[in-house]
Write a structure and sequence with these properties.
The structure is a single chain. With 63 residues, this protein is mainly alpha-helical. It has a domain at 34-63. Helix content is 76%, strand content 0%. The chain has helices at residues 11-32, 37-62. The relative contact order is 0.06.
């Protein structure tokens, strides 16, 4: 007797693979995206404030 079985493809593995690729691509995009001008301005202002505080600290420490 020949029995033919038709295997049902389980879409769960494909869904897991597709969501993994989606999350990884979104994550890598967020890591390597260019910063906006607002973020750059915040970084520059923060760096300027830190350097000013270090200068003041060094001036008071040297006295």
């Amino acid at each position: 007797m020949l029995t033919t079985t038709t295997e049902i493809i389980n879409p769960r593995n494909y869904i897991i693979a597709a969501t993994s690729v989606m999350f990884l691509s979104v994550g890598l995009t967020e890591v390597f995206k260019e910063t906006t001008t607002i973020e750059q301005d915040l970084c520059y202002n923060y760096k300027r404030d830190i350097s000013a505080e270090l200068i003041i600290y060094n001036q008071t420490f040297a006295r």
